[in-house]
Predict the structure.
Amino acid sequence: MVLLLVALAVAVTAFAVSRRNPADAAGGWRWFAGWAGAGTLLSFSVLTGFTIGMFLAPLVLGALWTVAGRARLWPEGLGLFAGVATTCLLVAVLALPYRPCPPSGSGSLATGSLATGSSSCGGFDPFAWAVAGVALALASGFAYAFAHKSRRGVSPA
């Protein structure tokens, strides 16, 4: 199902791009953000797969159709990576309450303490998701800024 969604996303994007007049394609940060929104929806839908991801598929395909039909593919299409970064950062934020379990599998209370509350451990470490999100966001933002300046004929230095 996930591979089908990705294949459909590529097909819808390619079809929308082929139907528009290249001279009418818009550009700028606004369309970079549009591609980022479509990338966020696509990556979130792929990540959630068989749960809510399949229900987001029509929204994903509609967003890709809209953005690909109106915006330039290069360099604004780099916003797709910024969208993936957004999803990575969302996962990292949702995993912040992560507490590793002790190696023995059970914890101990201090002597004389009352066990009135509950404690849990587990989840996954959000560090890798945060690093991936920040790296993708910075890479896509800087790549777009560099490509945008180069496209206008302005030296990026």
